[in-house]
């Protein structure tokens, strides 16, 4: 899979700063406070991310786009931050900046003298990413959620070649259904339904990814099957498995920001079917594009406050406040469901926990 760099991210940031400020931007600026014990500088090391570096300085690491002092050249340059560079906290302006070497830049910040050198690796290959890209790479192109309308119309596997029930890489497989001009498909098995914790409604079905198939011969009649060959297989493919067209490799801009509108949702599931999630694990939220979430939206996580009896008031029911304990970074959205990466938590994430816009 194509490696991530900060190029797309910085381009998105350029577009953001060039546009008029939205209400969400105003709320973000108000939330971007530096830690009282923030260091004066940090030397970038391999494994750092923009999120982790900003977390050394800021109360809310997702605020980093608001506090980096970026000029136009830096925004356009995919070689933005590399291991070995030094991040300085300019306390006078309330900005984080890259030092430019020995000496002074004129504003009191250290500067670094650069000499011409040749890079033989890919552009931006070693630049640090915004978030741990390896944690979400498998989720960007594989089918994760199948909405009911797509479930009903998706092409499906009838059987394998030579009468085989289950097939793997290199095997033939027969498929029935409308291909709509596509020739390469991902194969999935519909898995557990995702139910809205608030309403109980099924918002979609998680998809167990099985592999990739390529068309070798299209059906010549309505009652004839298409012929495919399995080009990639992570699990056996059998009758009833369904197909979705192979998407192009996404170019995703990971600029963390407040959702454009106020969002309050709930954690529906932890990916993999386990009970709890920790740092750098993936969860689903019962809110999506239709509720105002987009790629890069940051939500804060709260344990849902229980309702308890007030014994001194005749057991009158009283709801305890929701307790904030972490944040989740939305990296993929569907109509009514989003997938998010757990960025920082002080407690395990549980199904039913609240995920809402930062206050």
UniProtKB/TrEMBL annotation:
PROSITE patterns: LYSM, PROKAR_LIPOPROTEIN. Residues 40-89 form the LysM domain. The keyword rRNA processing does not apply. Residues 1-20 form the signal peptide. Keywords: Signal. It holds the Pfam family LysM. InterPro entries: Bact_Kbp, LysM, LysM_dom_sf. It comes from the Bacteria. This is Nucleoid-associated protein YgaU, contains BON and LysM domains.
């Amino acid at each position: 899979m194509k490696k991530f760099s900060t190029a797309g991210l910085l381009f998105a940031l350029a577009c953001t700063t060039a546009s008029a400020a939205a209400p969400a931007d105003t709320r973000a600026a108000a939330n971007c406070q530096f830690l009282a014990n923030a260091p004066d500088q940090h030397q970038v090391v391999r494994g750092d991310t923009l999120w982790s570096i900003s977390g050394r300085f800021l109360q809310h690491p997702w605020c980093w786009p608001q506090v980096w002092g970026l000029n136009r050249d830096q925004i356009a340059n995919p070689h933005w931050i590399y291991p070995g560079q030094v991040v300085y906290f300019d306390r006078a302006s309330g900005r984080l900046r890259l030092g430019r070497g020995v000496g002074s830049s004129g504003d009191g910040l250290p500067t670094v003298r650069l000499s011409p050198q040749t890079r033989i690796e890919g552009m931006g290959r070693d630049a640090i990413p915004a978030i741990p890209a390896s944690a979400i790479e498998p989720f960007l192109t594989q089918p994760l959620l199948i909405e009911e309308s797509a479930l009903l119309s998706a092409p499906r596997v009838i059987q394998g070649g030579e009468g085989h029930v289950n097939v793997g890489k290199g095997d033939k497989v027969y498929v029935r259904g409308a291909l709509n001009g596509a020739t390469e498909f991902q194969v999935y098995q519909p898995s557990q339904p995702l139910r809205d914790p608030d309403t109980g409604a099924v918002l979609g079905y998680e998809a167990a990814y099985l592999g990739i198939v390529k068309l070798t011969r299209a059906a010549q009649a309505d009652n004839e099957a298409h012929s495919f060959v399995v080009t990639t297989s992570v699990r056996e493919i059998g009758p009833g498995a369904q197909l979705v067209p192979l998407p192009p490799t996404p170019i995703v801009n990971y600029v963390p920001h407040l959702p454009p509108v106020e969002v309050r949702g709930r954690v529906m599931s932890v990916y993999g079917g386990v009970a709890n999630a920790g740092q750098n694990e993936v969860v689903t939220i019962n809110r999506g594009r239709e509720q105002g979430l987009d790629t890069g939206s940051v939500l804060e996580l709260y344990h849902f406050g229980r309702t308890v009896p007030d014994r001194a008031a005749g057991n009158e029911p009283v709801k305890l406040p929701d307790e904030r304990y972490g944040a989740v970074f939305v990296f993929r959205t569907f109509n009514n469901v989003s997938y998010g990466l757990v960025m920082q938590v002080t407690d395990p994430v549980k199904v039913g926990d609240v995920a809402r816009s930062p206050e």
